[in-house]
Structure formats: C-alpha cells, structure tokens
Amino acid sequence: MAKVTFTHAGDTLIAYLAGEIDHHTAQLLREQIDGQIAGSMPARLVLDFGGVEFMDSSGVGLILGRAKRMQAVEGQLTVQKAPPAVAKMLRLARIESI
Questions:
Q1: Per-residue pLDDT reduced to its tens digit, 5-23
Q2: pLDDT the model gives residue 97
Q3: What's this model's pTM, rounded to 2 decimal places?
Q4: CA-CA distances (angstroms) from residue 98 to 36, 69, 74?
C-alpha cells in the first residue's frame, strides 16, 4: 500500500511518498497529489521518494503526469531521494532525480 503526506514551504508543495507504487496505488496517489496542486497552485512540486519500497512503471507515469500538470500552471517538478532501485528505473526513463 502506498501513501502520501504533504507539507508546504512557501510556494513549494512537498509530497512525501511511501510504500509500494504500482498500478493499483498510482491512481489514488495521482488524485491526492492533483488535488493538492489544484488547491494550492504551487510554483514548485517536490516528489520525495525516500519512503518508497517498490515502484513499477506506474510510478514513472505518475511522475510524468505531474510534470505535465506543473508545466500547465507554469511550475516546476523536482524528484528527490529515490532509493537505488527506483533511481535506476528513473534513469532508464530519463527522469532526473536529486
């Protein structure tokens, strides 16, 4: 099961992801993150993968979709703290992580 918690720091929304991100959980995470974006209209969205234990290609879709959403509101997306297995998948998808 995956979960997400949020904090705000100025015009930045930070989404702390945890658990397993797969086809079943990605949709719920998408809805929760998009709701926070719509509610706060941040200039920057940070997706923190520090608590993610497993991620399949649905997680890549989650990231790319949020990147498009942030571009639509002239914001930016940052991905951070991806564990080694997730970081490898992100490199293969050419997604930069810090």
A1: 999 999 999 999 999 999 9
A2: 86
A3: 0.95
A4: 22, 20, 21
Question: CA angle 71-39-13, nearest 5°?
Answer: 60
Q: CA–CA separation, 8 vs 40, rounded Å?
A: 9
Distance CA 6, CA 3 (A): 10
Give me the phi and psi of 96, to 5 degrees please.
-80, 135
pLDDT in tens, 21-60: 999 999 999 999 999 999 999 999 999 999 999 999 999 9
CA distance 46 to 80: 7
Sign of CA dihedral 34, 30, 64, 15: positive
Please give the Cα distance from 8 to 41 (Å, whole number). Answer: 11
